[in-house]
Amino acid sequence: MKNPRAFRPVLLFCSALLALGAGCSKPEQAATPASSDVAPVATATVPAVTVARPVSTLPVVGPSPAWSTIDLEGKPISAESLQGKVVVVDFWATWCPPCVYEIPGYVYLQKKYADQGLVIVGFSVDQNAAAVPPFAKKYGINYPIAIVGEEMAELFGGLEGTPMTFLIDREGNIRHKKIGAMETDDYEKLLAPLL
Question: What is the CATH number of domain 62-194?
Fold first, then answer.
């Protein structure tokens, strides 16, 4: 090994260069303008903060059809009468386990969001119409129910299965279609931004 003392001058020289190049420097101070050179500071009024509503990312599937029917209480209900509301149209049946599974969730959503403009409409496709009113009472259904035939399903493109559900925005556009059951929390995430 060569003599380590021979490297000492080189190390000292490199250290000195680093110290000079990386040393701290006093920051330059900006010239202080004379008082006549100072422009007045503009003030602005900050607008009140508002909480933004979530924006739906659901695409428009198509326009909702013009439909009308009579609910279990004998009251007319139609797409036109629900204009300006967020509407869930649910084709279901008392004999359909996934339909029955979803109903408590729809009852919950109707109660929670009714004052924000949500209307759930249940279109029962039961052939035994007498089974529907006691079923609605048993499950505490708090939204309009109508017993419909194939012609109503045809307006929505035909019944592809039960439950078959459409989410319609305030402008009358179908924003989501599902066939089969969905967890209430997941469906709530879809509809809440439309309210």
Answer: 3.40.30.10
